[in-house]
Amino acid sequence: MDPRMCRQISSSESLPDAENVEVEESNIIMPQESDDNFLLDGSPEPHSVTWLDDDQIDDLDINLDQNNLFFHRVDSADIIYRNKKKKCKMVGKYVMGDVLGEGSYGKVKEMLDSESLCRRAVKILKKRKLRRIPNGEQNVQKEIQLLRILRHKNVIELVDVMYNDEKQKMYLVMEFCVGVLQDMLESSPGKKFPQRQAHDYFTQLLDGLEYLHGQGVVHKDIKPGNLLLTLNQTLKITDFGVAEALDMFSPEDTCYTGQGSPAFQPPEIANGAETFSGTKVDIWSSGVTLYNMTTGRYPFEGDNVFRLLEAIGRAEPAPPPRCLGPALHSLLTHMLSRDPDLRPDVHQIRRHAWIQATPALEAGERLVNPRSRRSDEHHNSTVIPYLVERHYASAQEYFTERDLRHELGDNGSRTMSTAELSDGESTQCKRRWHSSCGRLPSCRLT
Amino acid sequence: MYIPDINEYQLTSIVAECCGGVAVVYSALYKPNNQHVAIKRYFVDKSKEKANLIQQDILTRKELQHPNILSYLTSFVHGKELYVVSPLMSLGSCRDVLDRYFQEGLPELACAIILRDVLFALQYLHKQLYIHRSVRASHVLLDTNGCVKLSGLRSAASMMVRGRRQRQLHNLPPPDHDNANLMWLSPELLEQNLKGYDERSDIYSLGVLCCELANGAVPFSDVPTTLMFTEKVRGNRPQLLDCSSFPEPLDDGEMKNLIWNEPDGMYNTDSGVGDSADGVCRLRQVYAARKLSEPFHHLSEIALQRDPERRPSATQLLNHQFFKQIRKTDFLPSLIGRVKPIKPDANDMSALLLQEKMSEMDIEKQTEWDF
Binding positions for ATP (chain A) (predicted)? Predict the structure, then answer.
């Protein structure tokens, strides 16, 4: 778990959402032999530890230095974990899962469509938070409008929009993705991808951009942080918060505002031009993205946003390293032309030599896998434990690390099932009723 | 070559409505050679989203040639509707047969013949790098000659994507109108994780089909979809019901107890088979009194294994002991003798009316769909 999510608080604080946090090691019951045998979670003792997410930390105002954590040395086999109850929560027909990511607007959680069993991601927007962000509410409205009409395999699909007026929340249900290119880059050696992998993602980005520009939509915030990957490695352009639909009757693609991320902004925006070509902004940002994916660096750097924008506005980009090879070098230089008119459009990029030929995976290079928030390399559904809580009321309350390992080894899944653990013998017994299966009418009767 | 023109076909009766009212299947006589055919009429307007699936279905079937896969004869547009012509399977689907004549399940030998032929179809499909993804009794069609054919290729997926062979797929098949298809799907397919699934997912579905054919009812049909999902993920599998798996018929009191003790008390035994208490009791007695062979149990168990790595391939399953009981002289239609074939019904007014209406319609230029 992310260490930032671990904070100590006093037990008197009320924690409305704490049930939703993952199974937690914090709920430790000390072994019998020690006399200070206490239950940490929810007990009246002063040393209660509960894990919070950033959201809750925001809501609390605690001086962390005043709190101390005590560590007792305990053999891992003696630790008994309490199975944190995963309270199953439904929003509409969707079952809520764990948090996938967080943004300034709110959280992104996993969901499961209880009818089609399709995995989904939901962006939960809180009105209270949106108001704090400049243009927050307008941007969201614009994003919804745009996503409703856009349909392409490389553009994130907005599946459903739900509102909860009482809680002042908005739910944007989207396709499920396993990772963000940004996170993958951060976890990879040299913070870059092998050219082979970058080529795969970049050509998909081009497909998506070609569609968007064809539809008269400029994204204006292309960056690895806004490029997602699905289970089958399909790239999805996401976050249309600052995107703009061009005037369909104008022959030009003139834009007036740019609100994208500074490091990916072109010189014309950095210099504060009043009008500029919209599509060429995306070309520049895609160029910076490709530069970043293949080198692990940025063409412009600066100590702060001001310096960075100054560098973009005045200086030449740091030349791409020679080791990239002449083809990629020329493509990057072309895309990062200071003059927007000299930058290629999507079609020209497509014909470029580096795009045409798939680079080979060089010796020693390894493809980077989508990183998981949890230590779960297969990205299993995080909704399953909630469903187990819902459907199997008698789920085991306490378990040890050995149980956990046993279970993970056996099933490779994170389900907190106890039927398999406690009933291992009966499953071996040929055709005896499976413990929970027996409760099912379909298996029992028909 | 069948002529793609509605005037060459004389509709004789309505066979079934399918895909949640999006299509109707008629039996028809093909005038040039007096052959009986089945015509599936799609209301394309009603299913804008699904038009590409129909197209996918036709494209896939055009590509495939196997005696155990429903072949494609021709297709054409007439008025606002799309017509797809296939050979007529006059005993209908296994689901129809179970619902109408064999609520307690088909005789074991009939199951063996059907499953063997479905496996031949799967063996071929897998060799062609296709995953069927909706192996279920309603997609297994029978005729009076003893032919067993697999249909439902609309949900089939190719392992070839953009010219490259994929080791696994990750997406759910396209949803059907009531999401019923999920009940046959393998745990790894439903999980939608990075491990993905491959052709062995079809073998799991074949295992579910085993239970469906033998028990009459669809496993998991009476529980919430999410519970079906967790059951599969936890490795609980449906089974064949006979005296070994269903030892003592419970008396009424015990049975009520069981029903009342359901978690949440929300599941009823709405299996579509024996809704009345009498029906349930009768089915219980049938199950408890019969004995299915050991190889049959074994086949369903190995096909329904949670770990796809341990499931045998279609080819391996075809060598299974269970199929050794089939002799060359066994003839499927006589094993299920009560089933009546679809007969052209001269008095079927609806079909006749429809025919009339069609001939009245302005005939636009007939064009075969050119894919």
Answer: 123
- Residues in chain A closer than 8 A to B284 (CB atoms): 445
Q: Are residues A421 and A313 in the same domain?
A: no
Number of domains in chain A: 4
Helix/strand/coil for A223: coil
A123 labeled part of a ligand binding site: yes
pTM of the model: 0.78
Cα–Cα distance, B371 to B364 (Å, whole number): 20
Verify that B111 and B14 share a domain, yes or no. Answer: no
We report the CATH number of the domain holding residue B34 as: 3.30.200.20
Distance, in angstroms, between A103 CA and closest chain B CA?
Answer: 24
Q: How many CB atoms sit inside 10 A of residue B304's CB?
A: 25
How far apart are the CA of A187 and the nearest CA of chain B, in angstroms?
18
Average pLDDT over residues B37-58: 80
Question: Which residues partner with A123 through β-bridges?
Answer: A108, A172
Examine the pLDDT at B272 and tell me if it is beyond 70.
no
The residue range of the domain holding A58 is 1-72
Q: Are residues B84 and B100 in the same domain?
A: no
User: B125 to chain A nearest CA, in Å?
Assistant: 22
Q: Using a CB–CB cutoff of 8 Å, tell me whether A169 touches chain B.
A: no
Q: In which residue are the tokens 């305990």 written?
A: A74
Q: Are B210 and B137 in contact (CB under 8 A)?
A: no
Question: What residue numbers bound the domain in which B103 lies?
Answer: 92-240+292-335
Q: At what angle do helices B108-127 and B200-215 cross, to 10 degrees?
A: 160
- CATH at residue A148: 3.30.200.20
Q: Is B296 exposed, middle or buried (0-12, 13-18, 19+ CB in 10 A)?
A: buried
pLDDT at A375: 61
Q: What residues of chain A lie within 8 A of the CB of B283, using their CB? A: 445-446
Q: Tell me, yes or no, whether A201 and A350 share the same domain.
A: yes
Residue A387: which of B175, B217, B230 has the nearest Cβ?
B230
User: Mean pLDDT throughout B206-212?
Assistant: 97
Residue A231: closest C-alpha in chain B: B194
Per the structure, the count of domains in chain B is 2
Q: Which residues of A are catalytic?
A: 221
User: Is residue A431 in some structural domain?
Assistant: yes
Is residue B21 predicted with pLDDT exceeding 80?
Answer: no
Does one domain contain both B356 and B322? Answer: no
Per-residue buried b or exposed e for B156-172, using 16+ beta carbons within 10 Å of the residue's own CB: bbebeeeeeebebbbbb
Within-domain flag for B64: yes
Neighbours of B54 (CB within 10 A): 21
> Would you state the structure tokens that stand for residue A357, as one six-digit string?
């030929």
Q: Tell me the pLDDT tens digit for each residue of A213-246.
A: 999 999 999 999 999 999 989 999 998 988 888 8
Of these ranges, A164-168, A374-378, B212-216, the one predicted with the greatest mean pLDDT is: B212-216
Contact criterion met (CB < 8 Å) for A446 and B221: yes
pLDDT at A40 (0 to 100): 38
CB contact under 8 A, B223 and A95: no
The verdict on residue B111 lying in a domain is yes
Residue ranges of A 216-235 with Cβ closer than 8 A to chain B: 230-232
Give how far A392 is from chain B: nearest CA, Å: 7
pLDDT of B254 over the 50 cut: no
The structure tokens listed for A145 are 């409008």
User: Which residues of B fall within a CB distance of 8 Å from A378?
Assistant: 193-195
- Count Cα atoms within 13 angstroms, Cβ side, for A139: 22
Q: Tell me if A415 and B224 make a contact (CB, 8 A cut-off).
A: no
A49 — pLDDT class (breaks 50, 70, 90): low
The interface predicted TM-score of the complex, written ipTM, equals 0.84
B193: nearest CB among A378, A390, A440: A378
CA A353 – CA A360 distance, rounded (Å): 14
Do both A247 and A348 map to the same domain? yes
What are the pLDDT digits (tens) for A59-82? 554 444 444 455 556 666 666 666
Task: Choose one of A40, A72, A104: the last residue of a domain.
Answer: A72
Task: Tell me the one-letter amino acid at A408.
Answer: L
| Interchain proximity B227–A388, CB inside 8 Å | no
